[in-house]
Amino acid sequence: MGASGLCVDGNPAGFLDSKSTSCIRIFANLSKSCITDPALDAASYYRNFTVLKVPVNGTIMPSMQVKIIPVTPPGAPYMKDNTCNNVVSEVVYEIEFNSTHGIQSVSVQFKVTSIIGNAGSSLQQHFTFHFWTRTLSHTLPRSGNPGYIVGAPLLIAKSGAMEHMTILQSQGDGSCSQFVRHKVQFGINMKTGCKLSLSQILEENDCSYIQQKLYKALQGMNRAEDLAVIGSAHLTQAKEWTTILIQNCSAQAVNCTSCCMVPVTLHIQILWTKEGLLSNPQAQVLGARYLYQCQPLKFLSMIMVPLTTIVTFTDMTEWPEPPRGQPKTYWKLPFDFFFPFKIALTEERSYRGRLSMDL
């Protein structure tokens, strides 16, 4: 964006500089610009160029280049009835960076609109660059050893990497932060809320786009796949992970014309238990579920959708049968003979967990 708010196509994107910008384009001859202006065509944002994994001096090998993958790319712009259709109004780049091997992948998503060919037609475009780093599992701090510690971050796995589970966080004006999210802490119930703006004109055929945007806002950029059972879980140990069950919304609106059934609340339910010896019980996860609650959304020209995330931890510990305390003392035995026997009886009692989730 230039000083006047008009679009400047030569503005470079900064490395690891996640940001969003907006600018205005004004067309003296929309019929001509619709066909010839590359800034209006989605293909110009990913075709005929690649991104280098790391800066290179000299020959650039194919292995150093990363192709940009479009997510459901729209067709080329075209004129019909004095209207330019399939015009790019929003571009969102997702760039994955690895501190060891550089940029690993680049994807791009688009939002398109139509412009009526009046005198001095204009278009506001939005551009977002989001860099994210895949955390190496061995550098992520433990959340307990082996059991979880209350207040420690909950560990998840997605796309073969270990991360912390996160939920929505609001900004100062109440809107949903695009990049900053709250970490979920083991054993601590949480509830957050914010408003997500859908400022473009939304028509019936935009329903899938709205659903995708709201799901992504609730679950984060990439949905968690597995949850660590213990705080010291390793990615290579399958028994230390449990699959997160997902219950999405129904795609159909009920008794509503021109509506879209969208997720507005994500309830993360986590069942846990204490396992092991009475003298040193360890907290571990039994199971987890993402439960989305939905409501029909009417298509309006300006929409602020309130979103809510709820996290609940339920203790499913099954206590050992009484007596739970120390075993009875037989004072007729010599103390040095009784003491190890007493400890052995105490140590053999343990906690057990029971999983019960209605799915």
Q: Can you count the helices? A: 3
Total number of strands: 21
What is the percent of helical residues?
under 10%
The geometry reads as globular
Poorly predicted residue ranges: 326-349
Secondary-structure content class: mainly beta
Which whole number gives the mean pLDDT?
81
As for the number of domains, it is: 2
Query: Secondary-structure element sequence?
Result: EHEEEEEEEEEEEEHEEEEEEEHE
Query: How many angstroms does the end-to-end distance come to?
Result: 50 Å
In what range is the share of β-strand residues? 35-45%
Rounded to the nearest angstrom, the radius of gyration is 27 Å
Let me know the largest β-sheet.
7 strands, mixed
Structure description:
The strands form five sheets. Strands 13, 16, 17, 18, 19, 20 and 21 form a seven-stranded mixed beta sheet that branches. By secondary structure, the protein is mainly β. It starts with 18 loop residues before the first strand and ends in a 6-residue tail after the last strand. The radius of gyration is 27 Å and the shape is globular. It folds into two domains: 134 residues, no CATH class; 223 residues, no CATH class. The chain contains three helices and 21 strands.
